[in-house]
Amino acid sequence: MSAPTIGHVDNSVLIEAPIDVVWDATNDVEKWPELFTEYASAEILERSGDTVRFRLAMHPDENGKVWSWVSERTPDKAARRVVARRVEPGPFEFMNIEWLYETEGKGTRMRWIQDFRMRPDAPIDTAAMTDRINANTAVQMDVIKDKVERLALHGIGGPSRPQRAVKTVSIEDVPSNRRRGGDIRVILSPATVGSTAGFMGTLRLAPAEVVTEHWHPYSEEFLFCVSGGITVRLDGRELPLRANEGVHIPLGVKHRLMNDGPEPAFLVFALGPLAPRPELGHVDTEVLPGSAP
């Protein structure tokens, strides 16, 4: 059976804010890195009438790759509609997006409709990308809803309103990152919950597994061993970390984690504050044994 010819996703969110506030906040492309958690930068390249052409760059993915492309969008405020497309489609053969806005009660329903097809040599196919876009759209819409509702309530620079109900994120909801060794999952982060001061995750280390040496130029790390036990090497000094024990890793300290015991180890970590950009958060000083150079 052949893969879907065209991917199609249709998602919406109800934002408790006037339609003009939602429109203005979500169509200020230069400020998208402040509105979306996935974009590291947005550069305006050209304006022609109502059409704007711009370059977006994402934060690095789990493999350290930064995806960047040129898009253009034409807003029609009277019709409360925006049509957009990728000019540089990258792994897509094409990507077309329609934004629709409609007053609903005292709020605004914002809807994104995306049609696309993946290139034959893309790393994932159209069906897999459909699932990925649907999942990521839910995260981004939730973040945008919160930020725009705060803006509507207090205005720019005003005090934050009390947090609305906090969502939970399961360890199964986030991908495993094995680039430095072990099974590392960042559970609460800017990408998953819109955090602004740090991130938290888990680490599973099987016997004989390691997390290769690295250090953080902007963040302190807090590491707690839930079960099992490991050896932590801090700037060359080794110390055991057993179940129900924690260790503080100061900013700039090289650290390597090793499970040299007979049992799997499960740990929880938190880092803060955030680096200016995700790719600046880790400095690797060791290559994972057995990995490609």
From TrEMBL:
Residues 15-129 form the Coenzyme Q-binding protein COQ10 START domain. It comes from the Bacteria. Residues 203-268 form the Cupin type-2 domain. It holds the Pfam family Cupin_2. This is Aromatase. It comes from Asanoa siamensis.
